[in-house]
Structure formats: C-alpha cells, structure tokens
Design a protein that fits this description.
Blueprint lengths: L9 H16 L6 E7 L7 H19 L4 E7 L37 H15 L5 E4 H6 L4 H9 L1 H12 L10 E3 L10 E7 L4 E6 L1 E4 L2 E4 L4 E5 L5 E3 L1 H12 L1 E3 L2 E2 L3 H13 L10 E2 L2 E2 L16 H7 L2 H9 L6 E2 L5 H17 L11 H16 L14 H9 L6 H11 L12 H18 L12 H16 L3 H14 L4 H13 L7 H8 L1 H15 L1
Parallel strand pairs: 1-2, 1-11, 2-3, 12-13, 14-15
Antiparallel strand pairs: 4-10, 5-6, 6-9, 7-8
Length: 544
C-alpha cells in the first residue's frame, strides 16, 4: 500500500525529506527556517514570486507535520545595478554598478530603487496572505548579522578560490577575495578588486580597476582604498554569500533556479567545509518562460508581474499556478488566467463534493490524484478551509457579461443574468465576495486584454462542425428571439449529424472556454449577437 505523506503533495514530500534530514544531522527542530531571495535589481515577475510562494508552501507543509516554521524573505538590495530594465528612465545609466540600495527610486515613492522593487514583491506576498519575515541584505551587513561568517570566509579565501576554480572553472577568485567592496571614491560595486584581508582590523584592501557589468566593460576610477567588512562597505560574492546567510540565519531549505546552479554548488561546499554548517535542502525548479519561449526577464521587457495577474485574476488562481508542480519549464501569460480561474473552481468542487473516504486506504492512481488535489486546495487556502464551496461560473462568461454591462452596475447586471440562467441556485439570494471580485476582474480582462488580443486559440473542427457553426451564424444573425436561437442549436446539430449535447459542449468551448455554461439562447442575446458572431468567425478562421 502506498503511503500518503502529509497531504500527499510535492510540498509534503519536500517537508518530510527535510525533517528526516534534519534529524540525521541532529539539528534543533524547535524552529525550521526556509528562505527565498527577493531580487531588488529589477521589476519582480511571476518567477520571482514563485520562488517565495513555493518556499512558503514548504513552510505550510512543515507546520502540517507539526513543526514551527518561518519564511525569511531576504532582499538582495546590496547588489549592483547591471543594466537598466526595459521601460525605466535612461538617467539610471548613471547608476550602473552602484548598489541598488543607494540608487534613488525612479518612481519617487520609496527610499531607494531597491526598496521600490522589493516592495512590489512584498505587496504581492501580502495580497496572497503569505506570512514572512523580511530581511534587508543591507541591514544584515550593517547590523553585523554576517560578521562571523565574513571573517571565516575571508580567512579561508585562498582555499575557497581554489575550490571555485575546481568546481565551476572560474579562475577569478584565485587572485581576488570573494568580497566586493564599494569604492569609496566612485561609489560603485563590482569594479574594485579586493586583494588582501587585514584580519585583525576586519578590512580588505582594494583597487578600483573595472569589470564587465552586464555585457559591457565599466572602467574603474583607479582609487586604492580599504573597506571595513563589518560596516556594510561592501558585500560577499555570490559564490559564498548564500552560505553565509544560511549559516547566520540557520536556513534549512531554499529552492533555486537552474540559472544559479553553479553558485549553489559552490555555496553548498563552502557551507559544509568552511563554515561547518550543513547546507540546506534544495529543490531545483525550471524557469518561467513567456508564450514565445523566452525567459521572463526583469530587463528584457517581457516581465509578467504578479500585479498584472492580480488585476485580472484572484489570489487563489495565482497560488494554484505556483503550487501545482515545481518540475518542468512553464510557459505563462495573461491568457492563462481564465483557465486557472476555472481550474481552481474544479479543484474546489472536487474538495467539497468528494466525501466519506479513508485516505489511508486509497492506493489507486486516481485516488492518489484526489488526495493531492485536496492537499493543494488546502495549501492554496493556507490550511484555513472555507465552510463551503463558492459559486462557480466560467471566467470567460463573467468577462463577456460584465463587458456589456453599464459601467458601475456590472456586478448587479451579471448576477441578475446568472440567476436568470439558473446558475446561482441554492445561494439564498447571497453571493460571495469572491464572485463579486471575479466579476470586476473579469470585466477588466475583457476590456483590457480580450479587446487588445482578439485572436482566438485554435480549436480543432471537423467539416461537419464547421458547416454547423456557419449555419448557426446565419440563424443568430437573422433572429432576436432567444428561444428561437436556443431551439435552432438543437436543429442545426441534428441537421449535420451531431449529437446536440456534443454541439453544445463545442459551442461552450468556443465561446467561454469550458464544456458547460448557461442556456445559450439568452446568453447570445445578452452578450450581443454581433459579438457572438465575431467570436465564432474568429474560431473558424483560426481552425483553418
């Protein structure tokens, strides 16, 4: 019999593996910390959020196993600016290679560039109701949180430099210390070469020579000076900084993307062998790509931010996107929002409609899938389960109805139409705030996304289906009677040898993206005959 760990999800497997590893290491389990880095050098995107949300999911799974856990959101705000992100003002070029915590906020609403970028990610975490403890990298250096680790690392710089060359082939740290001073003359980081550590004074000696930043060489100012490594006058190299953070904060889990595999490999060795701190458990995840297959980048202009998702979709659908799985490359775009909204509804239906089973006795693949689905649903809701399922209406139906409603009356109009369609039965006249929220978000999606991107995703159509749809378009164009249109759908299906129920499913899929929906006659009149005809014609064109 297959054993179910926790709630049966990948998060539970990670949490269980983590706990068993910690027991073998004989480490204190009174508080288990997980970490996510918050990039502060560019606009946070869905992938940036995914790192933090998945770490939070592991925290939830640890708590489900009976352990206290905490998520540390560590802002890398001492990093230097390598390039100006797409869409930001050109004057930021003056600050290339300066620590982002020392750069003015281009939007003039936060204390620095770094704080603005970090706050965007914290805003998304807050809107997802995720609990975390924020840690500024600058404050960590300023307050001496990493002092012990910095001293040990710089005392062992020669050994570390040799190991970096052996592990990843990077020769740089055979001559330079794994520490980036901020040049006290030009105020830039990465350009100064730290060549000697004065142990009893906790200072490094450096010369500002220059370095490749992004794709361009930036000339140093030539200044020779010293930096106090205990006073935030620089930062550790990425090749050792993770290890210092893990040790200082007692981090037991951190996921990473394949783009920083080399850094993680080196940091694991440094933590284990130089700092005598067993490195945290890792899970490697693939990157999010845009729909064209390009990596979502903070500087390339294809950033898909959490704020954009939450403008059109709910917190639950975004959590579902990030909790579904960790393996495999993911292509994501704003057009995925309706699908994830409907998928969450199906997940909730499964949770509340499948009852009376004994999880310990379920061993079939279908049963295991059910257990995982229930577990993901509970984690999406932070282990605080609603008392009942909400109202489930296809997102695209909400979008189409809200788009034709009078501005300011969208919610009332859509609810009235849904009641007329019989889609709010048993709700005692009351509807949830989530449905009201979805109506308003779906309206924005219709007006700002669908009207800008009218192209339809191709649905395969055979010749009978094509001719049936062409005939139905003629009927819709010639009648204003919902009953006549409803009846004609049956007649058209039979005329072309199609089962009426199959034709209805096809029309629902073409019009609202699901295989169910309202009575089509009234719906077609409500949304507007011309709108429906345009949608059907686009699908005919897309199908070829």
């Amino acid at each position: 019999m297959q054993r179910v760990i926790g709630k049966g999800t990948w998060l539970d497997k990670v949490a269980h593996t983590l706990v068993e590893r910690e027991k073998r290491l004989a480490r204190d389990l009174s508080l288990i910390r997980v970490e996510s880095g918050l990039g502060a050098s560019g606009i946070p995107h869905i992938g940036s959020l995914g790192d933090a949300v998945r770490a939070y999911g592991v925290k939830l799974a640890l708590e489900n196993l009976g352990y206290r856990a905490e998520l540390i959101a560590y802002s890398d705000d001492m990093d230097g600016l390598r390039k100006v992100p797409y869409g930001l003002p050109e004057w930021l070029k003056e600050y290339i290679a300066m620590p982002v915590c020392n750069i003015p906020d281009p939007f003039s609403c936060h204390s620095s560039y770094a704080m603005h970028m970090s706050s965007m990610l914290m805003d998304a975490l807050d809107r997802l109701s995720i609990r975390y403890r924020f840690q500024s990298g600058y404050e960590a250096y300023k307050q001496g949180l990493l002092n012990k680790e910095i001293d040990v690392l710089l005392r062992n710089a020669k050994v570390i430099g040799e190991k970096i060359a052996e592990l990843v082939g990077q020769e740089k740290f055979r001559q330079a210390l794994p520490y980036f001073p901020i040049c006290s003359n030009c105020k830039r980081i990465y350009l100064a070469n730290a060549y000697e550590y004065v142990e009893d004074e906790h200072k490094v000696l450096y010369e500002c020579k220059g370095s490749i930043i992004g794709r361009e060489y930036v000339q140093g100012c030539g200044y020779k000076g010293e930096a106090d490594v205990f006073k935030a006058e620089g930062k550790l190299s990425w090749k050792v900084e993770f290890a210092a953070r893990w040790s200082a904060l007692s981090i037991r889990f951190e996921a990473y993307g394949k783009d920083i595999m080399d850094s993680v490999k080196v940091n694991d060795w440094v933590a284990d062998n130089i700092l005598n701190y067993a490195h945290p458990l890792h899970v490697r995840y693939e990157m999010f790509l845009d729909k064209s297959g390009r990596k979502i980048s903070k500087s390339a202009g294809n950033v898909f931010t959490p704020q954009v998702w939450l403008r059109y979709g709910t917190a639950q659908s975004l959590m579902l996107l990030l909790f579904k799985r960790i393996a495999g490359t993911r292509h994501v775009g704003v057009e995925d929002i309706p699908r994830l909204e409907d998928e969450y509804d199906r997940l909730e239906d499964t949770y509340f409609n499948v009852t009376g089973y004994d999880a310990s006795s379920l061993t079939t693949p279908d049963a295991m899938k059910l257990i995982k689905q229930r577990g993901i649903y509970e984690y999406i809701n932070h282990n605080r389960i609603p008392s009942r399922a909400g109202e489930h209406v296809p997102y695209m139906l909400l979008a189409q109805l809200a788009a034709v409603a009078v501005e300011g009356k969208e919610v009332e109009y859509v609810l009235n139409r849904l009641r007329a369609y019989g889609m709010l039965k048993g709700r005692d006249g009351e509807v949830s705030e989530r449905l009201r929220e979805r109506i308003l978000k779906a309206r924005l999606y219709a007006l700002e996304v669908l009207q800008q991107r009218p192209e339809s995703k191709a649905v395969s159509l055979d010749e009978r289906q094509r001719k049936a749809i062409e005939d139905l378009i003629q009927v819709i164009g010639s009648s204003d009677d919902a009953k006549v249109i409803q009846s004609s759908i049956f007649d058209t299906a039979r005329k072309h040898g199609i089962e009426p129920k199959d034709f209805f499913r096809l029309l629902y899929m073409l019009l609202i993206g699901t295989d169910y929906g309202p009575r089509l006659g009234p719906y077609i009149i409500d949304v507007g005959k011309n709108n429906i005809i345009s949608m059907l014609r686009r699908h005919l064109d897309a199908a070829g």
